[in-house]
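INTERNAL AUDIT FORM
Audit reference: QA-55
Scope: verify that the stored structure record matches its stored sequence.
Auditor: D.O.
Record contents follow.
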Amino acid sequence: MVLTPELIDHISRVDLPGQDAQYLMAPMGRPRHPASAIPTTAKQAAILVALYEEESVWKTVLMQRVAHELDRHSGQVSWPGGKQESDDADLSATALREFEEEMGVSRDQLTILRKLTDIYIPVSGFHVHPYIAVADGSVEITPEQAEVDHVIEIPLADLLRLERRRTEVQIPHGGTMMAPAYVYQETIIWGATSMILSELQVLLRGINL
């Protein structure tokens, strides 16, 4: 998939698939959370879906977090991102700052195209706001070793071919469960990360017809 200026413009304007696309990848029994049902005490966070071209191949990047005993999401595959800080102008600024800190790519190289559908994560109490950005020119990813175990770069053509499968997944701090997941080069992507990826996949498939 090649992101022409016309397709990039279309991504910024087309209607979002929304929760219907997200919940194709939701674990069994996970309730939907409309805006009115999200607790007012929820912690605000943002992630960045960065689209960039490398050697004529358009890609995005996920990361596997370093394992920490006290972090419910430690060791999991996720989008670069994190909690909003008081100095952030807004949640899009949070997404850009976190990407810069974790991936080593200057926020000045990235242009926000739009916000995807937000998602509430009950287990950690985070209200996550996903943003799509496109990079201006090539990027050099230099992950922050204290936070990032390794990065998973996925060409958009491969992303479009990923299929939902029911897979045994590891729960942080022990145990397993069966859940919908994507498997990319032996990396298992599930939970909120796969739900956001599912909306992105449906969005890109829709504009690539």
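Auditor finding: record pair retrieved intact. The two ends are 11 Å apart (CA to CA).
Action required: none
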